[in-house]
Amino acid sequence: MNAGRIFDIQRFSIHDGPGIRTTVFLKGCPLRCLWCGNPESIDPKPQLSYVADKCIACGECFKVCKPNALSKDTAGKAVVDRARCTNSGDCAPVCDPKALEMVGRDMAVDDVIEVVLRDRDYYAQSGGGLTLSGGEPLLQPEFAEDLFHAAKNHGIHCCIETSGYATWDVFERLRRVVDLWLFDFKETDPRLHEKFTGRENQTILERLQQLHDAGAAILLRCPMIPGHNARKEHLDGIVALSRRLPRLGGVELLPYYDLWRAKLKRFGLTAHLPESVKPPTRETVKSWNAYLRDRGVRVRG
Ligand code: SF4
Ligand code: SF4
Question: Among 170, 112, 93, which residue's Cα sits nearest to residue 136?
């Protein structure tokens, strides 16, 4: 069976599909959304995470780093030179307090299923199950298919969260094992879509239509980013899209949140979204939802 490149497994998730779920996050994404909530998910390769607050200045990591990517600050704590670091991971096992850790590891289907099955009673009580997220889970279709097959053998409900940016044969392959598609739609205007995500939206819209016409259960999820796609024109685009897709299970707006900024330092990454972009107020989110409802859109949340 295939292994998947995973960067996190979250048990007791309540925002990634119906009920209580286990969400498995796969590493690697073809998009570059400016507001990506999981910046460590984009690169398909494992990455070094460093949390300086956990460093106890023991000095063990300096002994094993071959490219000399680690130096000491005045307190003896490690400083990572990202230009030199090759993400070899040699330093992580010697760091007892886990200030240094590698994020992204290959896990076999059986090992993931073992984690998923731990909460099967909760799934049964809440109508929950397993969700594959990322990153972009469609980049690892063999693993996704095997994992979902294994989950279905245990009667577990299967969701996938996707940007939709993949070839149709990947959707075809997974259609039989996915119970619910959480399909992201990020921007109506093609030029802005490319500016915000690094990719055009034509492919994504074609896949959405194909998936809908094939009879798949789909929930459209729309991240709303103030000063970017949180505009009347995009809300109107969501209305038009939901009218073209009459069997859509609904639309869920995902208000921007900025917790991802705290992760950047851990991975030596830089933000591409201005600091001035702030999460919307509750009232603003309510007004967006009302705007859609008034135009006949079945809004979730
Ligand atoms: S991951 Fe490898 S190259 Fe990077 S700091 Fe650790 S030991 Fe050095
Ligand atoms: S091994 Fe870990 S705790 Fe020790 S100096 Fe390096 S980063 Fe700090």
Answer: 170
